[in-house]
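Lab meeting, action items carried over

1. Structure of the two-component assembly. Owner: GW. Status: complete.
Input record:
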Amino acid sequence: MSRRVHIKNEYLETRLVRRRIILSALFILVLLGVLVGRLYVLQIVDYNHFTTLSDKNRIRFKALPPARGLIYDRNGVIMANNLPAYRLEIIKEQVEDLDQTLIDLKQYVDYSDLDLRLYLRAANRRRSFESIPLRLNLNDEEVARLAVNLYKFDGVEINARLTRNYPQGDHAVHALGYVGRIDVKDLELVNENNYAGTSHIGKLGLEKFYESQLHGTVGVQQVEVNSRGRTLSVLSETAPLPGDNLYLTIDSKLQKVAEQAFGDLTGSVVAINPRNGEVLALVSMPKFDPNLFVNGISYKNYDKLRNSKQQPMFNRALSGQYPPGSTTKPFFGLAGLEAGTINSQSKIFCRGFYRLPNKEHRYRDWKKQGHGYMDLKGAITQSCDVYFYDLSYRLGIDKMSAFLDKFGFGKKTGIDSTGEVSGLLPSREWKRKTLNRPWFPGETLNTGIGQGTFLVTPLQLANSTGALSLNGLRYRPHLVNALENGSSGIKTDIPIEQVYEGGVSKKLNWEQVHKDMVNVVHGLHGTASGIDRGLTYRMAGKTGTAQVYGIAQDDEYDEDTVINRLRDHALFMSYAPSENPQIAVAVIVENGGHGSSVAAPIARKVLDAYLVNIDKTGSDLGDGSQP
Amino acid sequence: MNNMSDTGDYSRLRRLLDALNIDPVLLTLLMILSVFGIVLLYSGGGASIDLIVRQLTRLSLGLFLFILVANIPLRALKSLSVWLYLFGVLLLLAVMFFGEVGKGAQRWLDLGIIRFQPSEMLKLAVPLMVASYLSDRVLPIGLKDLFVSVILVLIPVMLIARQPDLGTAILVGSAGAFVLFLAGVRWRIMLSLMFLFSLMAPLLWKFSLHDYQRSRILTMFDPESDPLGSGYHIIQSKIAIGSGGVYGKGWLNGTQSQLDFIPERSTDFIFSVFGEEFGFLGGVILILLYLSIIFRGLYIAARSNDSYGQLVAGAISLTFFVYLFVNIGMVSGMLPVVGVPLPLISYGGTSMVTLFVGFGLIMSIRSTKRFMG
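Predicted assembly:
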């Protein structure tokens, strides 16, 4: 074979292959001999051993689900825990006639069609001999009734299992998220064996984002069962490892103040510590009770939630996108200063509308009769639109979007939760890419007052406000401060993450804008001057009103006649204390009308609660009543 | 079985089989095995008629393709090889990007009407391709051709291993390796190749797999670490086979099997049911039946006068052996659980069809031989 033939010779070659074939046949004989040998050992040598095992093969492995990690607020107030609750569980393999059993069980315990569907789906999917819940959260009466009759049902068990509970109900639900029954799709994303015995999984929010940390590691119990499947003895056990506990950045008390400040209004508040990105409060109103989802929400309740006009399940703080309106003015003002397009002395005359050169269309100011002569200070304080139409026209969309990009507009902030959307920072490139249309000058003007296609999320606005307060320095907002190992109790801090280091050249420009924003609240003509009474600290802010409803050229917007759904959104962004910012807040009230009258007071309540009523050890608050 | 009497009926049948290019010996053996498989599946599948009907449907489809493929001329087959191979690799890439995730692995391509597992196709496309490449070269091959062939095998194997589907990757890889072996690659080179791969394995492990894929593969090799998963399968499977003894507990009487202790008992672990119900004796007979099929395949390969045909038929027969060896090895606790079915017996569509197409190829080689001779 070592002889090399350089001319193709079919005869020699087939002879070579033939030799190899014979060789492999011999190999096969040897290896099949090994297999037969293996069977010989199992079936003849060790026959007795295995027969004994087989006769007594009542050894089962039972999964011991781990306890889910707890969730605390930043001060250790419990936000999510686990409570023992009775469940009706069935081991399908031990049931003689499943259909009949399911019918018979109904005499003792009622279960819904949804319960049944979830059970059947799980039962078809899971490992054999796993007990799968049919009904959760049995009450005492149901347990008693069932327990007496349990002897009639092989394979049916009542087990007390730890079940997720949100002790404060709907409080902070949009920050926490919730867990629900595991579905087939959920299992494909996790290590299925680790979820043997687990019935719930994070579906939304933190519960979903931190699922792998919260869940823990499954334990195993090797048990001996009788022929009917009942456990006789435990042979060995590996205990489950509980999941990590989460310590949030959320301050439950502050969150509560913010929630209460909203009353019946719809909207969102986000409060952030600009110096590290900690989210102190994350509110979306209205709220809903996450406990409904843990035990399987009924169709009726679900429909009610889903069809509610106010959309309580919609997480406005992360997923709601709103035109920022005039809250963009400080950003664009700064952009103008930085680009040298304006300086603090530049003035324009506002006569109530603005026209592009050689165009008829009037771009209106919110104040019909106009503001008169305006510099930047006046334009921010009184929220003059015409000033910013002019500024935008001279600055141009490219510089505008490039500048606002530094504050994180139009991008996800990367918060550690689910459902965040990116908002939209309009730009020439964006329009060409998505709509394949050229950019029109009129759009630049609309962008300049935060209208048109410009969209922000409340979280984004709070984060950008924080960045503005610290001269551009920006952190990734986060909801979790630390993870605590469920077994060892060792706490690991989650590192904070700087996203943008600032980097605007002139400190003076920043100070100008900060001053102007302080003037919005404390100045004589400030649009939010209504909230400055009794303020013990200095606060910077900017109101905003976002149009939901387009007004025709000659029409007028009349707050009283426009139906509520189409009324403007009220916005307010602020930070305080202005000389040493500790907290940045963004408020959006849907259909709230003007930012000054509705949104600003909410922000003030949040800032008061954080800066005044709270002492720094975090122990007490003015109205800090615990439920 | 060769010494059947030359009755009129028989010769008519013989003529029909000749016309269809079917080797009567191999056909008979395959039919015995398939019938055997159906009987066993009835027990393994929990006496489900539904399951049997579906398996019979696949069997018919398999037989149809078997006859169809048997009648493709060798030359046509050879020129098709490259395209089959390229198409298969393309589909694998498609799976990587658009594939459906089932049970955590990405293997399926959803074509609307049918869900299709392209890796299955490569079990045949790879040996066809390598054989086609090598048979145009002078055998035994030089280093350059060897290098090209190894790359040809490795591309699909890595794509499949990434899904991750270790079982199929092993089958495809060994099909390719067998062609090389049969083509007379020298021992020294074979051994150094093996050595090289064992060196490369840690690198592939580190750089080409996701975390969750690694942990999945780890559990395969150390089932005891995972008593809630595959470790349970192995323990129960060994008890089932061992308690079968010499004669077995009888059809439908396996306590382990019938009481649902054995998971996947109609698919990958069907041999456990067999071992329990038919015992050591049954096991030896089944292995002999498989051995006859493999040897008949090798015999047809050896008698061919065309090196391409030889390589294809030889590699397919040897791959069939790998199925058998890995499956019985894993259910008896000798090898890690990698998800290889018991050929022609395990429930499941694609592998059965592939196997029959494979035997169809062997037929086509045999017939060509006769026409050429």
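2. GW to write a short summary for the group page. Key points so far: The mean pLDDT of chain B is 82. Chain B touches chain A through 64 residues (CB under 8 Å).
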